[in-house]
Write a structure and sequence with these properties.
The complex is a heterodimer of chains A (215) and B (164). Chain A has 215 residues and is mainly alpha-helical. In chain A, 70% of the residues lie in helices and 0% in strands. Chain A is built from 9 helices and no strands. Chain A is elongated. Chain B has 164 residues and is mostly helical. Chain B folds into 2 domains: 73 residues, RNA polymerase sigma factor, region 2, helix turn helix motif (Rna Polymerase Sigma Factor, Chain: A); 73 residues, Arc Repressor Mutant, subunit A (Orthogonal Bundle), CATH 1.10.10.10. Chain B is 68% helix and 0% strand. The chains are: A mainly alpha (215), B mainly alpha (164). At the A-B interface, helix 1, helix 3, helix 4 and helix 8 of A face helix 2, helix 3, helix 7 and helix 9 of B.
Chain lengths: 215, 164
Amino acid sequence: MNDQWPDRLSEYLDDELTPAERAALDAHLAGCATCRAVLDDLTRVRARARALPDQRPANDLWPAIARQIATGRRGPRVPALSVPQLLAASLALMLASGGLAWLAARRGVHASASAAAASPAWGAAPAWKSESSYAAAITQLEAALEAGRSSGALDTVTVRALVHSLAVVDTAILEARRALAADPASAYLNHHLADTMRRKLDLLRQASAIVSSRT
Amino acid sequence: MALAASGDGRAFERLYRSHVARVHSLARRMIDLEHADDLTQEVFVRAWRKLGTFRGESAFGTWLHRLAVNVILGKRQAVGVERDRFLTGAAIDDAATRSREPELALDFEDAIGRLPPGARQVFLLHDVAGYTHEEIATLLDIVPGTSKSQLFHARMALRGYLDR
């Protein structure tokens, strides 16, 4: 067996030789049973390695990981607002809610729960119990906006105001969640998120009343 | 993935359950079973903290695996696997000889664990995890030629355990 070739069999297997080297080794393999046997073994070793099964740990490590995540001062490192920025976002949210209420008043809509309940299509906006309730209310409102927009029953200004207000709300909720993820024990941030969610619900009730009055 | 990155612990737990087997197996094979649990925990805690940096250029599993490799390699010194990292001279001959002795009751995976740490790491990173020699060279602070040589000798040493 040519001494230069056995050490190159691994590279041959991984296609790392130059074309000239590969051609020369091909010629050698044609006449060397020993090298062919070694190459066959190396091929099988690589195949066994690739097929090695992964095994879960004997113990569930999640509880310990969850504790470290919960007690750590840092959460996912995404940009989070400072408290002053959260206050500014909350103010913007209130202004957005107020703007929508003004819009409703201007059109003579009483954005109350009873007014919203007068339309069986929309009903009263569900009291906030969980994020799934929000999801259902949002889906209803989006469907109403689309129906109103496509039928021409809702004017562009109204639609734009509704969409903008909802975007402000969603941004505020996302930022509140991020801040809370970084400091889950903060009483202020927990209250802030809950308050922001309630404001979104109020916004949805007002928007639902406007849509009901125009469609 | 997006839910986890926004701070949803339950979403991150689902990611953990999907990938823990691969991460734990990597830690067990590259270091040992004794340290695998602690290393796995550290990988996922660090992944939680770095989720915001995941930009989606690769699959999440690929990103997590690379993070795991870096964590595990960073712990090599702490768990005392720095000495006699690579197969050299007599150690190569000895490993190849042992692989031909049928009385050794080691299966293939046990045999991987018996390789010197450096050769084992090259073998695991290349043949099990699919890294290139250039990537391995960067991770292990060696040259690609050393990675190729160690891979060859690791494969040769494991030939005798193929049927176990």
